[in-house]
Automatic annotation (TrEMBL), chain A:
This is ATP-binding cassette domain-containing protein. SUPFAM superfamilies: P-loop containing nucleoside triphosphate hydrolases. The lineage of its organism: Bacteria, Pseudomonadati, Pseudomonadota, Gammaproteobacteria, Alteromonadales. Transmembrane segments: none annotated. Keywords: ATP-binding, Nodulation, Nucleotide-binding, Transport.
UniProtKB/TrEMBL annotation, chain B:
Keywords: Membrane, Transmembrane, Transmembrane helix. It comes from the Bacteria. The keyword Transmembrane applies. This is ABC transporter permease subunit. The keyword Membrane applies. Pfam families: ABC2_membrane_2. It comes from Alteromonas salexigens. The chain crosses the membrane at residues 20-40, 237-263, 283-308, 320-345, 365-390.
Length: 268, 398
């Protein structure tokens, strides 16, 4: 279980004068600081899949980076199965599997070597790494390219290897930042079935996405972030009910409304 | 940490660009450059020596001694007769003539009566030619003969003649041994090559291990691995350092080997003499002194690389760093700058000067320990700074 409460994160703006007019109008810009995340709170229980929604620049990636320990928040707390992520980030990292939105791989290493390297970083034995790679090669259909250098991989191949790399150490929580962006239908289906498998195993999954059909198909809960704040936090059914079952309308509804308007479903 | 080092080095070895710059370039290109330069230079010199020179004599064209001296080398010279209207300077510039001798009138071989005879030699001295040397070689014996005639006319003994020609003779009595002489000449160049090559060899890997991680999108994943940040930095630092050292050693070895092979006879003599005069300990110390220098370079390069947003940005920062780093090394090559006084405390310059002293065999080993220690301390501070930057969000997520 992961418990996130009242996260806030700001960044210094290097050159405020170089910001576009639209950026200057963003209410999160306060002097030399941009408050990327102002107040984000939600929970993800064991076996739950939480879909993190929000427009571009809403603060989703910053939130996920804080959860993954890559960034430190100015405010708020994150607990994973009782471990305070901010106080003990190294221990927390052992519990987290994180897939960033960039799906970067080491091009001069093979797919297998990319996965094995992160297994070694997590202190796994060679035998365990081999076993896990074999298991994930089956699950993610990677046998045909696993021993080729990653520099010529397609987006789908890269994403599959990245996912395998993120979960090689059997994490207690999996965080995926837009895992299906840029993938073809087949690769998307593979990623989605992998998330379903994690859910079936009882591993909590938080993933950000722009695809509402994925949310509808996979998620138990939906969290919508807008302008750095949680504007919706509820079950997928509650989210759909906001607009009579139309996910897209519900999403727009949460963006246009306020926290108070959704106080019946926002459990902050 | 070794896991990071091993992976980084494996990636380097698999990178064609790095291999080309680290191995192929020094092993193949330097010998080709050295060999090519020697080949073309010696060919050009041989052509200049053997070229049949077209010449004319103006002014007093009928001086028998000069004409006779010139005709003795007849197969290599071709005399041209000029009319008064012909512009001999323009003809030389147009390569129609190689030289023109202007002989004074009157021309009297009795120099005690006539005074010094000034002969003007017109030729084009731009580019490689041997005109002045070849004409001098023809006319100098004649000049010496006139000098001898004058001495005889004055009734001077041989010792008086020598005293007039060279009233004070300064004999060179060099107390420095050959090692010190060659050490002074080559020892100043050695650190320049070693430092520069280390820096060059470390630049591409450093760009790849910092900015490259950002550009590929692998940095974030690496940062959230349970490996402590300082170990990430140390792994990368050692990989960069090793590639710098390998690049320098491969290049210097290749250059030394090929210089000996290509130059054969001439170079072998002094190189073998110099190398055999330097003790094993001094060789070891020269390369030991390289260790903290490489550590300084690797720490700086890694810090710049992790600060840069992209590979290209890292390369531009590093270009500036090369300029800054080369300056203290060039200082050590300046005449009059020795390992004493304030120079003992100038970072990198002191190491370069110490390397020179080691090659010369005049190094004070206690001072060497101090220089090694101070450079290692600087490297340690820079490495700590690099670790600090790897912990700064502002640097990592610019």
């Amino acid at each position: 279980m992961i418990d996130i409460s009242h996260l806030a994160k700001k960044f210094a703006v290097e050159s405020p004068k170089k910001l576009s007019e639209q950026e200057k109008k963003d209410p999160r810009l306060k002097g030399r600081f941009f408050h990327s995340v102002k107040d984000v709170s939600f929970r993800c229980e064991k076996g739950e899949v939480v879909g993190l929604l929000g427009p571009n620049g809403a603060g989703k990636t910053t939130t996920l980076r804080i959860l993954s320990t890559a960034l430190k928040p100015e405010q708020g707390e994150v607990h994973i199965n009782g471990i305070n992520v901010l106080k003990d980030p190294v221990l927390a990292r052992k519990k987290i599997g994180f897939l960033s939105s960039s799906t970067g791989l080491y091009g001069r290493l093979s797919g297998r070597e990319n996965i094995a390297y992160f297994g070694q970083l997590h202190g796994l034995s060679k035998a365990r790494i081999d076993e896990k790679i074999a298991e994930m090669a089956d699950l993610l259909d990677m046998h045909s390219f696993l021993d080729r250098r990653a520099e010529n991989f397609s987006s789908g191949m890269k994403q599959k290897v990245s996912i395998a790399r993120a979960v090689i150490h059997d994490p207690e929580l999996v965080i995926l930042d837009e895992p299906t962006t840029g993938l073809d239908i087949m690769a998307t289906a593979t990623v989605m079935s992998f998330i379903e498998r994690l859910k079936a195993q009882g591993t909590p999954v938080i993933f950000s996405t722009h695809h509402l059909d994925e949310v509808q198909a996979l998620c138990d809960r939906v969290v919508v972030i807008n302008l750095g704040e949680t504007v919706f936090n509820g079950t997928t059914a509650e989210f759909a009910d906001l607009s009579g079952g139309h996910m897209h309308q519900s999403f727009l509804h949460t963006l246009n409304g306020t926290k108070e308007e959704h106080s019946n479903v926002v459990n902050l | 940490m070794w896991l990071i080092f091993k992976k980084e080095f494996m990636e380097l070895v698999r990178d064609r660009k790095t291999l080309i710059f680290m191995i192929a370039l020094p092993v193949l290109v330097f010998p080709l450059l050295i060999g090519g330069t020697i080949f073309f230079t010696s060919n050009a010199l041989e052509d200049a020596e053997n070229k049949v020179l077209k010449y004319a004599v103006i002014g007093n064209a009928n001086v028998a001694d000069i004409n006779s001296a010139l005709s003795e080398d007849g197969s290599m010279l071709e005399r041209v007769t000029l009319t008064a209207e012909q512009d001999y300077v323009a003809m030389i510039q147009a390569d129609e003539l190689d030289f023109v001798l202007e002989v004074p009138t009157p021309f009297n071989s009795e120099v005690l009566e006539s005074g010094q005879l000034a002969i003007n030699l017109y030729f084009n001295d731009a580019g490689l030619n041997k005109v002045y040397q070849r004409v001098s070689a023809i006319l100098t014996p004649l000049s010496e003969e006139y000098q001898l005639q004058a001495f005889r006319a004055l009734g001077l003994s041989e010792s008086q003649q020598q005293a007039i020609v060279t009233p004070m003779l300064i004999n060179r009595e060099n107390v420095a041994d050959n090692r010190e002489v060659w050490g002074e000449r080559i020892g100043a160049m050695l650190p320049y090559f070693l430092f520069f090559l280390c820096l060059q060899g470390a630049m591409a890997p450093a760009s790849d291990m910092g900015a490259g991680e950002k550009e590929r999108g692998t940095l974030e994943t690496l940062l959230i691995s349970p490996m402590p940040r300082y170990k990430l930095v140390l792994g990368k630092f050692f990989a960069i350092s090793l590639s710098g050292v390998i690049a320098a050693l491969v290049t210097v070895s290749s250059m030394a080997l090929w210089t000996v092979i290509i130059s054969q006879g001439l170079a072998v003599g002094f190189i073998v003499e110099l190398l055999s005069s330097i003790g094993v300990l001094d060789f070891v110390l020269v390369f030991l002194m390289l260790v903290p220098v490489v550590a300084v370079f690797a720490s700086l390069l890694l810090s710049l690389s992790i600060y840069a947003r992209s590979f290209k940005e890292a390369q531009s920062y590093m270009g500036g760093l090369v300029m800054v780093m080369i300056f203290p090394i060039i200082l050590a090559m300046m005449p009059g700058i020795e390992l004493k006084g304030v120079w003992v405390w100038v970072p990198l310059t002191n190491v370069a000067l110490a390397m020179k002293e080691l090659v010369k065999g005049t190094m004070d080993y206690v001072a060497l320990l101090g220089i090694f220690g101070s450079t290692a301390l600087i490297a340690g501070i820079l490495l700590a700074f690099s670790v600090h930057w790897f912990n700064r969000e502002k640097v990592l997520f610019r």
